[in-house]
User: Fold these one by one.
Assistant:
Number 1:
Amino acid sequence: MRVESSRYIEHFGSVRINGVQRVLQLDSGAGGELYPEEAMGARKIGRDTIEDIEHRMAIVILIKNEELKIFEGVISAIPHECLMIVVSNSQRKRVDAFKMEHDILSRFCRFTRRQALIIHQKDAILAEALKQANYTEILDEKGLVRDGKSEGMVIGILLAMSQGKDYVGFVDADNYIPGAVWEYVKHYAAGFSLAKSPYAMVRVLWRYKPKISRGLYFKKWGRVSEVTNRCLNSLISTNKGFETDIIKTANAGEHAMSIGLAKMLTYGSCYAIETQELVSILEQFGGVLPITNHAAAEQGIEVIQTESINPHLHKDKGEKHLLHELLLPSLSVIYHSPLCNLPTKRLILDQLVTRECLKSDEEPPKVHIIPPPQEANIQEFSHSFEGHLRKYVVPEEGGFREQFIGTEFGRTAAKVRRVVFTDLDGTLLHPLTYSYTQALDALRLLQDKEIPIIFCSAKTRAEQEVYREELGINDPFIVENGGAIFIPKDYFSFSFAYDKVTQDYLVIELGTPYTKVRQKLKKAEEESGCRIIGFGDLSVEEVAQRTGLNLKFAELAKQREYDETFEIGADKIKMQSVLNKIEEVGLSYVHGGRFYDAMGGNDKGKAVKILAELFKQKFGEIRSIGIGDSSNDMPMLAVVDIPLLVQRPGNRWEELEIANIYHVRGVGPEGWSEAVKELVAGL
Ligand code: GDD
């Protein structure tokens, strides 16, 4: 996609509102650019970037008694990578419209090999989950979710949060043009890729809204939007003292938010929602009223407005609906904002009285405001939902669905503690640079949530201690491919069996001493007639040269206690016979990407199992997560509840035969970070 650069920006406290950016090209091709686009006034957003954001985005489709044919067109236009969440308030009595929507979505997902969630707004389990989450403002006197598009949207946000999505976008189900729906989602993804803040919102302005009068007339602005924009601009102008017309999307039903932003905002009931989102941003971050979240304010809140290419054609619900259900509540939330001063109040009253929405002595009725979704206890919400999820996931049958239920939602089971076991080289550490920088933010997330991070690597104790100290990790760790488990003294408050005590640790030894491993390797070398070059045969400089480690780390890598890292000085044909010989002399081996490791009897999986048992004693039920990149992680990935595989250089995954393994996009720490963020979202 190619989007015009933002030329006109308005700042209001920590809020940055970008002027409308036109989309120049819906698909800008796969190749790179030969000239700096910024200078040309346009930004190209690559297909990969868009796809990556779509993967992290839930699209919430709101529906109430719409034409099923149109609904079918809408769902077929949602890009494959997005998670669809349909929130319906359609009738169930006489003709069960919701059942038909459910069937259509289910069939569509079965044919297209994708998964979706569909829920009825009046569902009793949903209402109960909201009660459990202590988020009851959204419930009516019968204890069910109130009617309203806005209420449906908030349910969508909560579900997107519980699914660990980073973004949530909204689409109406009465859109006649599937191409327009597809385009809106592309706008959302492109907008987020341009945003400089994680607290971002993308709002789409339709280029044309065709009307049928004598022929088809392509009208540029909706009347309601024109008035709401004017009033909202007046609110900003009068507070700043500088006139602006920056807001062009005050009623934009087609919009998306990062979850970080969505969960902080308040929402106006029914159709006041889109205007109230902007009012809420201005109130919370405009600097006129007290700032509600300083961390977010520091990063800034960004509003991006884009103009679509496809025309917008939807069902016309009549004048009364437009004025009383859309315009009146939209202007009402501006009117009742503490930011609204006299000139804007006068403008609003004038507009409403002229359109006969109000009598001249009346004030706009107050709109019910829904509190920020972050006030819901999302853990409780997910937890009460978990057991019933089968009811809401489509398609109903197939391994696909099992996978979704077993992991996607399973990961948010609130009361179950997570323990992360991670490989280092090629996984947490970049395979080429050994850098962990890309994973730092995700690592901090785990630490904030007090989720133990267990290194489980071929690296030595001495090497791992450096990383533990640098990253502030104090959890147990598994060294040299499961050779030993080092547990900080006093980490577990109960007693357990261990083999030795050092100054800082209780050590469970599972491997054969290094000298013995070396002796056996020598034997294999003699018997095979091929050179086996272990770290023990090399100087520090040579280890550094072969591994790319610096001298300090090369020295630490040589301080081996349980396993030997080696290369084989033989061609490919002889290689296998040497490896067979190594097994014959009583060792096992693994391939870690660049080198082999030989050891006696230990593997990562055995060590992980022992530690997992200790964590069960500590926490009760746990869910173990294993992250690796290569075949030497197989034993670890085979015993954890959620095995994750990051990519190796060249963006490919090692082929591992493990059931239910999750292939995570991103090489080493990049994939690590993505996976961890997904896993802890909503916890
Ligand atoms: N889940 C749910 N619950 N969906 C609802 C409800 C409800 O109570 N009420 C309406 N919807 C669905 C409709 O079926 C439709 O798909 C979508 O929400 C929008 O509702 P419409 O009634 O068609 O709204 P509109 O076309 O007048 O207004 C749209 O555009 C405005 C901007 O011009 C909406 O998106 C507005 O929110 C927006 O401000």
Number 2:
Amino acid sequence: MLNRREIIKLGALGSAVLALPVDRVLRATVGEPTAAPSVATPFSVRMPIPAVLRRTGVTANTDHYEIRIREVQAELVPGLLTTVRTYNGEFPGPTIRAFRGRRTIVRQVNELGHNVAVHLHGGHVPPGEDGHPLDVIPPGGSRTYRYPNEQRAASLWYHDHAHHHEAVNVYHGLSGAYLLSDPDEARLRLPSGRYDVPLQIRDARIEEDGTLTYTRASARPHMLVNGKERPFFPVAGRKYRLRLFNHSIDRYLNLGLSDNSEFLQIASDGGLLTAPVSTTAVKISAGERADIVVDFSRFAPGASVYLRNSDALSTENADVLRFDIGAGVVDRSRVPAHLADIPPLPVATVSRSFVLDLDPERNMHVINGQGYDSARVDVSTRLGTTEIWSIRNAEAAIPPPNFHVSHNFHTHLAQFRVLDRDGVPPGPAEAGLKDTVFVPPGSTVRIAVTWSGYTGQYVYHCHQLQHSVESMMGTIEITP
Ligand code: C2O
Ligand code: CU
Ligand code: CU
């Protein structure tokens, strides 16, 4: 049963979308979930590893690329063709490998019939390169983005950000991994090469004719890993670095292994943690990343273990990926006890608070009572300032899974630090650099953020993308 609040929300979705150019698709978000289409035998297809994008040019300190953004048909489920929106015809997009100290330049050509904007999520980039929601590439247009890559190694990602289109565009496939490495990380001898694998996870609803339906999380029973519904992945009996990306538009994942065994988390959004964290679960909300190392040598060859989402709905298959363990191989990789130094936090001189809420009057998701207005600057600060932001989800606490009342919070430009959740300091897995943080109903999260590097306007927003579409987004202006 839906409670009153949820009914208001569904109504909100219904009326908010009328104003949007994508209303035909979005109207499907209203109404009861229908039965899960039975489209696939789970774990019957091998998980692909997205190809690394090939350079179109190279100079002493720069790698050049070109991407065509276009619609294609892809086989997300064996035997069915699904129309998806892609970078270079690939779902998910090709992986971009970047190196600290070398610039990456990507020319993006929009071959779709509507606006796009390409944002490098987690990237420390000038405002003109950020893929701001209103700085769009029109149909038929192109745009060259320049990424300085002056930040530490991290699992970043690129995705669409055209205002009002971002949720539908990302849902239909416009996302890809951007793996930035650096010499400090390389020196550690973590699992690398074919043993360093991105797992880009997203939910979906695929109808029996292959149509990908844009609808709410509770009606999206399918789970895609690297573009395939519940695939299997043959692994050797050794250590793997698995880079978990939550590319769902609004669903959080609580990922662990089906035998409940421990693995190591080594990185979060902004790169390596100070030390590996032994854990049985990582919870990542939409847009967050976690790099883990799993040692498959402790399984017998021929055994299988699943990657399991323990916050799946009770009506869903909680397993998202099956690892099939093969023979052991020589493994010279290591996971050192000390991974990286995280810079000390400068003293904060400014505090601000942000309340994430639904305005039932105007039927909009808002921050501090206001919907996004690109003409308004919500936060103005000076370059170099360190601030404490207190972010509260005004919804009443209800137990997970609670996709409809959860929010998260993402800032462009900066990697921040989580200070506390409801007054309690974060565990070690959340104590590294972050660009997106989960804010469950009833909770307050405090972060510390330093606005450095570039002046200009950037956005911050809820990364449950239907919420940012509905205007849970604000503008920060950084002045010299
Ligand atoms: Cu991942 Cu403003 O976005
Ligand atoms: Cu971002
Ligand atoms: Cu939200």
Number 3:
Amino acid sequence: MKKRALHEDPIKHIAWKGDRLVVLDQRWLPRSVKFVTCKTATQVAKATTDMVLRGAPLIGCAAAYGMALAARRNKLKDVVAAEPVLRRARPTAVNLMHALDHMLAVAKSGPEKTLSRRMAAAAVQYFEHDLGYNAAMAKLGAALLKKNSNVMTHCNAGALATAGIGTAVGMIRQGWLTGKVKHVYPCETRPYLQGARLTLWELMEAGIPATLITDNMAAHLMKTRKIDAVIVGSDRIAANADVCNKIGTYGLAILAKHHGIPFYVVAPSTTVDLGTAHGDRIPIEERSIQEVVEIFGSKIAPKGAKAHHFGFDVTPHALVTAIVTEKGVVSPANGANLRKVLNN
Ligand code: MRU
């Protein structure tokens, strides 16, 4: 099989058409390939909230395109009005806030008559930067791995979550290309099943040997098989290097520490939030409990059941072996080292 990145594939997961944004509807993967067309910023915000598109860097890229759509009439007030609508779409992924701050600054930096053109160019550039960050992180990250590693990952931090080859999955893909990765164990990632539906799909499409496990198999696997590294992405990294990522990541980090397994976080600088001092201050998205008590519309819990649905958790930086950014590797993971690397 020819080895290729998802963004080189005929199925484009996000495509900017100048007057609209076409996104692959990730809710349907891998069962069907459907697309959603967004012509307004409000439609981009809804697609983001509804999980048509997801993954912190892709959420940021889509928001940048949403701002470009809002600028189509060359009116600054349209862009200013769209910004809070997009900002409310998902609370945890700070890439969203980063993209909106950037696009608002671009909007205000020139004459109104050129607004549409400038915003479209800035959104395309924002996307291309993320693509480049993915490639840089993949190389830096793969260099940290031993030859023939068995690795575990969580959620989907792959091509579907970014503009390029992914963050954690990008490192895994590069590791596989260079003989560092032998086998991948993606956790299924309840309740949204991003690991089972999306990461496994990406890995199988790329021909990377992978075996799916349920979330509660991770400890057993670490104890009984040789797991050489856990590699995950992030939605927000606080100033002290605490890492927020998909619910279940914290548990994996504790397990990795107990079993002496390195725990790597791969995330671009756009995921770092120096304005949030530590992880406990990161807003944790709580989603509908329907997503917990039902699977694909079928009830799995008794009628009237109470449930929690926390979308994310925070891993204290002391449990993180290294944070791989496009600017360099932060190790040990702490605030001082994070700032040093970001200033590179
Ligand atoms: O709720 P999701 O699917 O948007 O959550 C995604 C994750 O938690 C990813 O690990 C994170 O965004 C990093 S994606 C490169």
